[in-house]
Each structure stands twice: as C-alpha cells, then as structure tokens.
Amino acid sequence: QVQLVESGGGLVQAGDSLRLSCAASGRTFNNYVMAWFRQGPGKERGLIARITSSGGNPYHADSVKGRFTISRDNAKNMVYLQMNNLKPEDTAVYYCAARWAVSDQYAYWGQGTQVTVSS
After folding, report:
1. Residue 5: strand, helix, or coil
2. Residues β-bridged to residue 95
3. Cα angle at 4 between 87 and 89, to 5 degrees?
C-alpha cells in the first residue's frame, strides 16, 4: 500500500511556472506506475501525465505536451510535475495517483492540490 501527499499548488499568472510534488510512503514505491490527473471546474477528472515504475516512457496528454513534464525520483519516493507556460485553462485540482504495473486501475490517490492560473 502507498500513501500520497501532493504539494506545490498555488495562484499564478498566465505564463508562469510551477512544480508539483507528490511524496509517497511505503517501501515498494518503485513498483508503481505513477500519474498526475486534474479536475477543472465543471469538468471530469482526467489523466494528464504518466510515468512507468522505472521512470521511462513518460506520457503527456496533448493538452499539456511541450509545457508539462512528469518525472520521478525512486530514491526519494517522489514524483514531480513541472508545469511551464501555464494557461488559465490549466486551473484545476491536481491529483497524484499510483497503480501496480499489472493493473489498469489507479488504486491510490492523494488529496489533491489546487492550481489557479489568472489571465
């Protein structure tokens, strides 16, 4: 089992950058696929980035590709989301999530961190 705690959200202006962090507990962190989801006002929660247990083959949704980068540090049990050139439409609650590599269900979720981008 793993517990996830996000941090790094806040209020920024369009064009600014933020880095979200997700701290994971547990000794088997490097067995999990990690991901970032977000849920904007009036929208469903959706996947925006994913990274394999070893840190390879990162996936980024088209809406954030070229601006956001997911990374992880297995030695520190951390996952990051570097967000550059933020836009008002990036305003959302951002969630860190984990799943076993052999599963397609994200079983573990953080509490979320709010990102608000003003124009």
Report:
1. strand
2. 37
3. 10
The DSSP string of 20-82 is EEEEE-SS-GGGEEEEEEEE-TTS--EEEEEE-TTS-S-EE-TTTTTTEEEEEETTTTEEEEE
DSSP 14: T
Residue range 50-64, pLDDT digits in tens: 999 999 889 999 999
Q: Quick one: pLDDT at residue 27? A: 75
Spatial separation of the C-alpha atoms in residues 93 and 45, rounded to whole Å: 9
Q: Provide the 10 A C-beta neighbour count for residue 18.
A: 20
Cα gap 11→50, rounded to integer Å: 24
